[in-house]
């Protein structure tokens, strides 16, 4: 019988200051209470990306920004997003709610069928975990489409 030493992996959370395209720090504590406020916050961060980038903005119980998390970075027309990756970070950030967003490098912010299905899955996972998905914004060429405004959240 062979005995060995098992190593326990320590989970470490590392915070990095996120900066916008002008090099200014993204400020935590900012209240995002409506889709236009969320869009004003997210458009500068996502509109210049050459590939699809999916992000989550983690919110406190008072809908103030506590963290920004880049969930995935894909190709010019898709990115892979799994609920596990979104909510693992949300739980570690102690988020009460979140706002999802991703950019369409084509410039057209119209949600695809995949975007609609992903939003449905993430909202269901959030309900199960007690972390509300407040909105999902699709960004393109300085414009946005809000799932909340569409009545899909």
CATH topology tier name? Cytidine Deaminase, domain 2
Structural class: alpha+beta
Report the CATH C-level class. Alpha Beta
Query: Tell me about the biggest sheet?
Result: 5 strands, mixed
How many H/I helices? 3
Rg over CA atoms: 17 Å
CATH architecture classification name? 3-Layer(aba) Sandwich
CATH H level, superfamily name: Cytidine Deaminase, domain 2
Number of strands: 5
Order of helices and strands: HEEHEHEE
* Helical residues, percent: 25-40%
Mean pLDDT: 89
Oligomer state of the chains in this structure: single chain
* Overall form: globular
Question: Please, could you describe this protein's structure?
Answer:
The protein is an alpha+beta fold. It has one domain (35-146): 3-Layer(aba) Sandwich (Cytidine Deaminase, domain 2), CATH 3.40.140.10. The protein has 3 helices and 5 strands; from the N terminus they run αββαβαββ. The protein has helices spanning 35-46, 83-92, 113-129; strands at residues 53-59, 65-73, 97-103, 132-140, 143-146. Strands 2-1-3-4-5 form a 5-stranded mixed sheet, sandwiched between helices. Helix 3 links the parallel strand 3 and strand 4 (132-140). The longest helix has 17 residues, at 113-129. The protein is globular. The mean pLDDT is 89.
């Amino acid at each position: 019988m062979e005995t060995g030493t098992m190593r326990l992996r320590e989970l470490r959370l590392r915070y990095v200051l996120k900066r916008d395209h002008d090099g200014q720090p993204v400020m935590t504590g900012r209240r995002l209470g409506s889709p236009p406020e969320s869009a004003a916050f997210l458009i500068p961060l996502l509109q210049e990306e050459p590939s699809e980038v999916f992000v989550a903005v983690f919110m406190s119980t008072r809908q103030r920004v506590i963290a920004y998390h880049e969930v995935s970075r894909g190709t010019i027309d898709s990115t892979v997003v799994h609920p596990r990756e979104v909510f693992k970070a949300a739980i570690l950030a102690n988020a009460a709610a979140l706002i999802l967003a991703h950019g369409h490098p084509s410039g057209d912010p119209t949600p695809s069928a995949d975007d609609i299905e992903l939003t449905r899955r993430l909202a269901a996972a959030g309900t199960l975990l007690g972390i509300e998905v407040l909105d999902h914004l699709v960004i393109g060429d300085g414009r946005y489409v809000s799932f909340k405004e569409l009545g899909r959240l």
